């Protein structure tokens, strides 16, 4: 009766290793109401922000957020509005990274998720937009 | 005695498996998730396009 027990134990150990692998390669959960709401809010805001990415007033930071990089590119009466848009966008982004980590039961992944997004935002940015390179310098794409 | 060692070893393997699950960050899956969200936020793909099957 000893051997089957050990065999079962070994099988379990093996299984747990593969479960870990399989699970790690699966998709991340992003279909939650909270994430959908954040996404919708950011999509809506992008309509207003796009022009400021285009003229270089706002750029993508290397840590997954956006920043006002050239205030002079914004007409004075609009500056308050742009500042508000940037702040609101960064608030949504913080919540988004946190929520994705939480939705997957891994709050400690928040930073890794943010780093992944930082790279993908920059990779997908349109030509002419500004982003921070690895050294933190603003670069035109 | 020997079987005890084996069981202890397997126990360690089991524990290792659990630790692996906890610390491993699925970078590829995270990238996929990021792409999906960014495409929608920046409207890079038509949202009403039926998924390719």
Structural description of this entry:
- The complex is a heterodimer of chains A (141) and B (53).
- Chain A has 141 residues and is α+β, with helices and mostly antiparallel strands.
- Chain A is built from 4 helices and 4 strands; from the N terminus they run ααββααββ.
- Chain A has a 4-stranded mixed beta sheet.
- Chain B has 53 residues and is mainly α.
- Helices cover 70% and strands 0% of the residues of chain B.
Which parts of chain A are unreliable, with pLDDT below 50 for 5 consecutive residues or more? none
Helix content of chain A: 55-70%
Largest binding interface between chains: A-B, 35 and 33 residues
Strand content of chain A: 5-15%
Q: What is the helix/strand order of chain A?
A: HHEEHHEE
How many strand segments of chain B? 0
The biggest beta sheet of chain A is recorded as:
4 strands, mixed
Q: Low-confidence parts of chain B lasting 5 or more residues at pLDDT below 50?
A: none
Apparent shape of chain B: rod-shaped
The major sheet of chain B is characterized as: none
Query: First CA to last CA of chain B: what distance?
Result: 56 Å
- Looking at how many chains there are and whether they match, the oligomeric state comes to heterodimer
Strands ordered across the widest β-sheet of chain A: 2-1-3-4
Structural class of chain B: mainly alpha
Q: Output the helix-strand order of chain B.
A: HH
Distance between the termini of chain A: 68 Å
What portion of the residues of chain B fall into strands of 2 or more residues?
Answer: under 5%
Mean pLDDT of chain B: 76
Helix content of chain B: 55-70%
Salient structural properties:
heterodimer, A: 141 residues, alpha+beta, 4-stranded mixed sheet, 4 strands, elongated, B: 53 residues, mainly alpha, 2 helices, 70% helix
